[in-house]
C-alpha cells in the first residue's frame, strides 16, 4: 500500500478537532461504553491532560460516569479523592491534596492541569449524595511501601484484631529497607520473598467494605485496594528481575483487577473513565507487543467486555514535554522533535498542520492492514534517540478513535522550582 492510499484514507477519516461539534461527535460514540479509555502519548504533555479533562467532564455530567481511574498510585490518588468528595478530614484545598504525590515521577499528577480538574470535581460533587459523587482513584501498583503504611494506619484506627497479623506480615519486608530492587533480587534469585504473608493479609481484608457502616465503606475499600497493591507489587518486583514481559503483564492485569473491584464497589450500571498511557489503553494485539506475549489493559478489557470498551488514543507531531534523562533524575522540559517520516504522526501532520479527530468504525478499511510506527514517550526520554520511541501499530485496531494534536507543550508541575528548563 503506497503513501497516497494511506493519505486518502486519513483524509476520509479525519475531521477538525477543537470545536464543540468534534467533542459532541466523540461523546456520542461512547454512548454504549462502560469503560472509556483515554490515552496519552507521553506522561508530560499538557494538552493530553487538558483534553482528557474536557472529555471526562462531559462524560460525568452528561453520561453519568462515576469515577476516573488513572495510572497512578492508590494511596496518593485516594488522598486527592477524599478532597474531591469533600470528606470531613480531607485536605483543605486541592494543592494540599496533591502533596502526597512525592514519589518520582511526581509531575504526572502533581500538576496544574490536575489541580484544575480536582477543583472542578470538588465543585461538581458539592451537595450531591455520596452515591452520586464522582471519584478519582489510582490503579497502578508501584506503591509497595506506601500501601503497607496505609494498611497499618487503617487497621490501627479501627482497633482491628488484624493489626498484629499485618505487622507480622510486613516484618518480612523490613530487611530490604524500602528498596524494591533489593527485594526483587532477594525474592527472585534466593527465594526470600513475602508472597505467602501478603496473600494471607489480603484474604482478611477482601470485601470487608461490604459489611461496614456506609460512612466507612470507602475507607475499607481503600484498605483492600492497598492490600491488592502490595500483592501486585510484590509479584511485580519479584518477577521483573528475570522477565520484563512477565512483570509488564502482572502490572496490567493488576490494573484490570483494580478496575473490577472499583466497578463492584460503585454498583450495577457504574461507568468508568480510565486515564493511562497509550501503551496501556491501546489494544496490544494491534502492536508488536503481541509477538512478545505482552498484554495490556485495553486488550484485557476488550476481551472481557467487547463493545462496552471505547479506547481513544492521542498523538502529537512536536513541541515540548517534561521527562527525566534517567529513572529518578530531575525532570526537564525537553523539545519533542518533529515526528519521523512515515510515522502516524508525520502522516497526520502532512495532511495538514492542525488538530484532528479520527473516528474508527469496526468495519474494514484499508488502514486495517497498515502497520505504521506510532510515537510513545515515557517518563524517561532521550529525544536524540527518537527512533526507538515508535511502536509498530495498526491504529484503526489499536483504538476506537484517535486525537491528533499537532503542536503540544509540557505539563505545568505544581512545584515549578523542580523543573530544569
Automatic annotation (TrEMBL):
Gene3D superfamilies: EreA-like (biosynthetic domain) (3.40.1660.10), EreA-like, domain 2 (3.30.1870.10). InterPro entries: Emycin_Estase, Hydrolase/PRTase-associated, UCP036794_erythomycin. GO terms for molecular function: methyltransferase activity. Keywords: Methyltransferase, Transferase. Pfam families: Erythro_esteras. One of its GO terms (biological process) is response to antibiotic. This is Protein-L-isoaspartate O-methyltransferase. It comes from Paenibacillus graminis.
Amino acid at each position: 500500500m503506497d503513501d497516497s492510499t494511506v493519505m486518502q484514507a486519513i483524509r476520509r477519516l479525519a475531521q477538525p478537532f477543537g470545536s464543540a461539534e468534534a467533542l459532541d461527535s466523540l461523546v456520542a460514540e461512547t454512548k454504549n461504553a462502560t469503560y472509556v479509555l483515554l490515552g496519552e502519548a507521553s506522561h508530560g504533555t499538557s494538552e493530553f491532560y487538558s483534553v482528557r479533562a474536557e472529555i471526562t467532564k462531559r462524560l460525568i455530567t452528561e453520561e453519568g460516569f462515576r469515577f476516573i481511574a488513572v495510572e497512578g498510585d492508590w494511596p496518593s490518588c485516594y488522598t486527592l479523592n477524599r478532597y474531591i468528595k469533600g470528606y470531613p478530614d480531607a485536605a483543605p484545598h486541592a494543592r494540599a491534596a496533591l502533596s502526597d504525590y512525592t514519589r518520582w515521577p511526581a509531575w504526572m499528577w502533581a500538576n496544574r492541569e490536575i489541580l484544575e480538574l480536582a477543583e472542578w470535581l470538588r465543585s461538581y460533587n458539592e451537595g450531591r449524595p455520596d452515591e452520586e459523587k464522582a471519584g478519582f482513584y489510582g490503579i497502578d501498583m508501584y506503591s509497595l511501601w506506601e500501601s503497607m503504611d496505609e494498611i497499618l494506619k487503617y487497621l490501627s484506627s479501627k482497633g482491628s484484631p488484624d493489626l498484629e497479623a499485618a505487622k507480622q506480615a510486613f516484618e518480612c519486608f523490613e530487611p530490604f529497607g524500602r528498596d524494591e530492587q533489593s527485594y526483587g533480587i532477594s525474592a527472585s534469585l534466593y527465594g526470600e520473598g513475602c508472597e505467602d504473608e501478603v496473600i494471607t493479609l489480603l484474604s482478611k481484608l477482601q470485601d470487608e467494605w461490604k459489611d461496614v457502616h456506609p460512612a466507612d465503606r470507602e475507607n475499607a475499600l481503600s484498605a483492600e485496594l492497598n492490600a491488592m497493591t502490595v500483592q501486585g507489587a510484590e509479584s511485580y518486583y519479584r518477577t521483573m528481575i528475570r522477565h520484563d514481559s512477565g512483570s509488564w503483564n502482572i502490572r496490567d492485569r493488576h490494573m484490570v483487577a483494580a478496575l473490577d473491584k472499583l466497578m463492584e464497589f460503585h454498583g450495577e450500571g457504574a461507568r468508568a473513565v480510565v486515564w493511562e498511557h497509550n501503551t496501556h489503553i491501546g489494544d496490544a494485539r494491534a502492536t508488536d507487543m503481541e509477538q512478545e506475549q505482552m498484554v495490556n489493559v485495553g486488550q484485557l478489557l476488550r476481551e472481557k467486555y467487547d463493545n462496552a470498551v471505547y479506547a481513544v488514543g492521542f498523538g502529537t507531531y512536536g513541541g515540548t514535554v517534561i521527562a527525566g534523562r534517567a529513572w529518578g533524575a530531575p525532570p526537564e522540559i525537553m523539545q519533542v522533535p518533529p515526528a519521523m517520516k512515515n510515522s502516524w504522526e508525520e502522516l497526520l501532520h502532512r495532511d495538514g498542520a492542525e488538530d484532528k479527530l479520527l473516528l474508527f468504525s469496526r468495519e474494514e478499511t484499508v488502514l486495517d492492514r497498515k502497520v505504521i510506527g506510532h510515537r510513545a514517550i515515557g517518563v524517561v526520554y532521550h529525544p536524540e534517540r527518537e527512533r526507538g520511541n515508535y511502536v509498530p501499530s495498526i491504529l484503526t485496531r489499536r483504538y476506537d478513535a484517535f486525537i491528533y494534536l499537532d503542536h503540544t507543550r509540557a505539563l505545568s508541575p505544581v512545584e515549578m522550582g523542580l523543573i530544569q528548563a
